[in-house]
Amino acid sequence: MATVVSERYALSLYEVAKAENLASEMCDELSAVSELFVQYPDYLKVLTTPSIGFPEKRKTVETVFEGRVHPYLLNFLLLLTEKRRIGMIHEMAEAYRDLYYLEAGICAVTAVTAVALDPEQMEKLKQKMAQVTGKQIVLKNQVDGSVLGGVLVRIENKQIDDTIKTRLNDLATKLGQIIA
């Protein structure tokens, strides 16, 4: 969940990117940077360690990202590092994505299934969700064996649960009411 601080930083980056027609590119790059910090949490720890001075942190950020991300994003990362806000990069990436998706008419949908959906199933679900929402859909499939079967769809702030696990829980509740 994004905080007020992370939302403000994300909004600032978004406004600059939008003014330069880079909103989509910046969204992709910021997401990739956030994912990089997930894959290498020790690197994020280095950038958030108070005992390491900003000049050293600046060098590492420039070494890792210069020439690999847009200069605006590089400056953004340097600013976050200098202001000791780099630890909020994940929330900022999420807030930026939400801003971009809202203005671009894109809806993020997560389908939780017991086994991975094949490309044909993904496309069918994507088309169905596009019909329901009237928006372009970005679909992510999350595998969770505990659902046993069926699908749990998370779309914006709603959830459509058609999993076997939920059906079995509902049946157990009904049986418990009958027996009691």
How is this structure best summarized?
The chain contains 8 helices and 4 strands.
Structure, explained:
This protein is an alpha+beta fold and 180 residues long. Helix content is 62%, strand content 16%. The protein is built from 8 helices and 4 strands; from the N terminus they run ααααααβαβββα. Strands 2-1-3-4 form a 4-stranded mixed beta sheet. The protein is elongated, with a radius of gyration of 21 Å. The relative contact order is 0.12. The mean pLDDT is 92.
Break the fold down into its secondary structure elements and pairings.
Layout: H1 4-19, H2 23-39, H3 41-48, H4 54-65, H5 71-82, H6 89-104, E1 106-113, H7 119-133, E2 136-143, E3 150-155, E4 158-163, H8 164-179
Parallel strand pairs: 1-2
Antiparallel strand pairs: 1-3, 3-4
List the main descriptive attributes of the protein structure presented here.
alpha+beta; 180 residues; 4-stranded mixed β-sheet; elongated
In one word, what is the shape? elongated
Helix content: 55-70%
End-to-end Cα distance, whole Å, is 41 Å
Residue share in β-strands: 15-25%
Mean pLDDT: 92
Number of helices: 8
Widest β-sheet, arrangement of strands: 2-1-3-4
SSE order in H/E notation?
HHHHHHEHEEEH
Major β-sheet annotation: 4 strands, mixed
Helix and strand content put the structural class at alpha+beta
Number of strands: 4
What integer value in Å does the Rg equal? 21 Å
Poorly predicted runs of 5 or more residues: none
